[in-house]
Amino acid sequence: MTIELAELDHPAVEAPTPPDEESNRKRWWALGAALAVWVVVGTVLSGRNTQDLPNAELTGFQTWLTDLYGNLQDAKFNGDWFIKPAVWIGDSLDWIVTTLQHLFVSDPDRPLQVAQFGWAGVVALVVLIAYALSGARIAVLSLAVLLAIGYAGYWEAGIDTLIVTGVAVVICVLIGIPTAIWMSRSSAASAAITPVLDAMQTMPAFAYLAPLALLFGIGNSGAVVVTLIYALPPLVRITAHALGTVSPTTVEATASLGSTENQQTRKVRLPMSKRTIIVGLNQTIMAALSMATIAAFIAGPGLGQPIVRALNILNVGVAFVAGACVVLLAIMLDRATERAGIRAELAARSGGNENVRRIVLGVLGVAAVIALYLSHSQLRWSVFPESDFGAQVARRVNDWTDAFTGAVGDFTAWVNDTATTYLLNNLEDLLANSPWWLVAAAILTVAALLGGAGKGSFQRVVTGVALCSLAVLAAGYYAGSVPDINWVPYWTGVVVLLAVGGYLGAGEAFLPTAVCLTLIFGVGLWNDSMVTLSMTLFATLVVMIFGVTIGTWMGRSHRVDAAVRPFLDFLQTMPALVYLIPALALFPPGKFLAIAAAVLYASPVAIKIAADGIRSVSPTTVEAAQAIGSNRWQMISKVQLPMSKGSMVLAANQGLLFVLSMVVIGALVGGGSLGYLVISGFSQGQLYGKGLAAAIAITALGIMLDRITVHTAARYGRAETA
Amino acid sequence: MTAMVDDAGAVASTNGQSALTVNSLWKVFGPRADKIVGSPEADLSRAELLAKTGCTAAVRDVSFDVAPGEVFVVMGLSGSGKSTLVRCLTRLIEPTAGQITIDGEEVVGMSDTRLRELRRHHVSMVFQHFGLLPHRKVIDNVGYGLEVRGESKTDRRARAQEMVDLVGLSGNENAYPDQLSGGMQQRVGLARALAVNPSVLLFDEPFSALDPLIRRDMQNEVIRLHHEVGKTMVFITHDLAEALKLGDRILIMRDGALVQMGTPAEVVATPADDYVRDFVSEVPRSHVLTLAWVMRPPRPDEALTGPEMTPDTIVRDAARRVIDAADPVKVVDNGELLGVVDQDDILRVIVAEETPS
User: Do A614 and A643 touch, CB atoms closer than 8 A?
Assistant: First the structure.
């Protein structure tokens, strides 16, 4: 009866009717035709109207952004009121991090002075906490991880990373849990906050480094803020979802006994969703660690610094050692939270070994106090013993890499050259060297035809697309490649375009795509954005090849799944920056290297979604197809793949977003384009505006790709596989 | 169960003090639901209403009284609105229109604070899917209602232990709900509802999720508890046998509206329409009908020397003695002869399953 009631409360929405066969075929034909036009016209007009500017040249808008940066700096200096809150937040965060550093690492302002509590105290403290929250095994693991980091020579950097991650996570919890509670209680709050979370998650991490550093300052404060923003969404989302989906009968039953809203939250919803909330916390911690390393770009302290430095000089060995330290931290934090979640459940019920636990806790507590005292008073226990272990490993790794590159270098070079010459360059030609208005029209066509069913019939969509394309073409013809945001005919064209598209209802993805393309053109980075887009598309293609093949393989066999999944889980705990290191060992610096790292980074998630899609095909259907005599290939091609189409598009969606964020970070190893502009914006004040513009363009690209694929997935009825 | 009431609706008029009164209760789900009641649309059928306004009338114009100590059963198929009705009684679902009075207090329009007081002290509910807190021991589940109304830990532990013993769960008080069988979990639900010592207990299909054997045990448990604690009970079920077994009176609902209200015997003997007739067609008449329904005036030639029985005796229970007796059995209430019953009359009910006219 509760189900019925739920239905009564929310009258059933009509299930989206799957697109009919004929309309689908027409759409694909239209798409093919548009592509053909694009290729022909693009080849003829190659190199014209591409908005390709030299790196050092700024458009009006970009200059304006640079000036804005200067003005904000002045405002900070003068203590203007509007910047005060940001300055205050930045200063407070900086104070917290510096105080913790002063206690446990060393005072960054007085580098010669040792910390209040040195390594022995910190190790004992971490082991104590790990034992209390997650049990003996995790305590041993933490001990091993911390000592390994120390011996590798990254003690201070490692603790710095832990501090930044920890501070950000604590703030995430302080902000996130109340927000989630509010969202679960008020549908208005939920409706208002969800799009913000969406935006926070769709935006590639690199995009908000610059604007946030501008507001909150670089260094400790900026690092905490970017980490916090990147890590917050999973916790809020998962907690709100868990609170909202607590068994309705239990909620009703406790309400029927006269619980107040607050009692419901405290005594029913929170305890019942504890397990899920810890899963959210785990994701938040992993995201925070990943971002805390990337924050090295805005001078955040910690392990990110040595990695970025090593990558800059292409020293695989050093990057490997520092990267391994980050991975060790990731494993430690991941296992610890996972275990803490299980323990939280067990602890309430067990009575048996509580005494043993209390004794061990007492012993560890005393040990920690002694260790803290020693580390405060004796240099031996304060400064981690010097060791050249890390340097040795780095040298070894470099030797191995050289030997390896010597052995397979020809092969990887061949892969690199072939893929670059035959695929990447052609794709880049098509996207970046065609006139911008042609590419815009083509992308809009794709968005209109694939992204969403739209309100109109097929004819109306085609008419709409044709009209819009004409508008773009006309605007382009007049505009040439004038990349000026103040140019009136350009904006008029945009408005006409949006109005026509909106009127004709050409699919849900059309309008967001138009807005994003407008932004990309408006900030004056069309050419660079298209280069980034071509890299993203190419990498996603590879990711999807992996996703569909390995995913199908896993989805069809539990044995394969059991064998591969732990490996994918491990890959997913690795912080983003670390992915560049193995790629650097395989390929020479350049675009292809960035693509390889992106493929590595995005494949696990795509493979998992694809595998889940194949697995969730109704077993009855599979059985029926078997009974009728399908062979393996028929089963895959006629039953399992078509029925999991929605999941595959979703895998592509996640793949695209992961790839994009990595391709941008790949600028560090020669990926170029937008990511490079972001980095050069940090380092050269006069290019700041261009870096910020690049951040906007990255975000626009991300949202555009997300909208098109999400609505495509919806059109293929993700529901049918769910 | 004692037949406290013979006449449907007679309770309120006889003593004027009902435990629960419901008057013209409506619950309409959908956009601008409050505009439906009182408008011509209210007379449309459910399907027509949905097509015309997008609204669903889950409860339509239902009125009834429940006497103190009575077991009142609301019966209907799924979708008949019975679960919505019971939730409206303490406004777990907000009624669209109508009045509800519990212990002389008007529930609709009550402030939130007052409503909470009502739920904490006067009315508690047992749910189909138990609704227990998985992270709490049995004893803390039972004490939840006492906890939210602010009683001290020792007090509520003591009271909860009493309730655990009362429902026959002694020794399980430190178990967690998932360590108990379904029947035992529902006993916890029952104990939780009893712990706050309410004057009215609401049951929403409490045994539908249980195995048939356990269901029978639990029904007997409810009968036992009713004898021991004597609470007013409103019992929702879709199972006619359960309704006939437990109910002093039965209200039958269909598409949100009241179809028939009366004692089990009345419902079986004189179904209000084909819907109810279809429902009760499988019920063994002799298990439900009382002698009052079977007796007839004595014929002039009959000897009035047989044994005496009361009119509320169930036919099945009377059968052996009526068949054994040489003369017709006299049905006597307070010394007044109401009629007689002979072997023929009994066999007609038991064997031929006829309903006497």
Answer: no
Note the pLDDT tens digit of each residue in B138-156.
999 999 999 998 899 999 9
Q: Could you say which of A8, A247, A272 has the minimum Cβ distance to residue B58?
A: A8
Q: Distance (Å, rounded) from C-alpha A155 to C-alpha A84?
A: 35
Q: What distances in angstroms separate CA A210 from CA A218, A678, B347, one per listed residue? A: 9, 7, 94
Q: What is the pLDDT of residues A259-315, one digit of tens each?
A: 888 899 999 999 888 888 888 898 899 999 989 998 888 888 889 889 988 888 888
Residue B184 has φ and ψ, to the nearest 5°, of: -70, -35
Which amino acid is it at B178?
Answer: D
Q: Could you tell me the CA-to-CA distances from A345 to A60, A127, B131 in Å, in that order?
A: 59, 21, 19
Nearest 5°: CA angle at B19, between B14 and B21? 80
Residue B49's CB is within 10 A of a number of other CB atoms, namely 21
Distance, C-alpha B160 to centroid of its chain? 26
CB contact under 8 A, A257 and B196: yes
Structure tokens at B86: 């019971």
Give dist(CA B27, CA B35) in Å, integer: 12
Residue B300 makes CB contacts below 8 A (sequence gap 6+) with none
CB-CB contact of B286 with B264 (8 Å): no
Query: What is the DSSP secondary-structure string of A482-548?
Result: ---TT-HHHHHHHHHHHHHHHHHT--TTHHHHHHHHHHHHHTT-HHHHHHHHHHHHHHHHHHHHHHH
* DSSP category for residue A635: I
d(CA B258, CA B238): 14
Interface contact flag, A260 B148, Cβ < 8 Å: yes
Contact A254 B144 (CB under 8 A): yes
Which 3 state secondary structure label does DSSP give A302? coil
> Is any Cβ of chain B less than 8 angstroms from the Cβ of A268?
yes
Place of tokens 């933490």: A142
In Å, how far is A165's CA from the nearest CA of chain B? 31
pLDDT at A473: 63
CA angle A491, A493, A496 (to 5 degrees): 110
DSSP A82: G
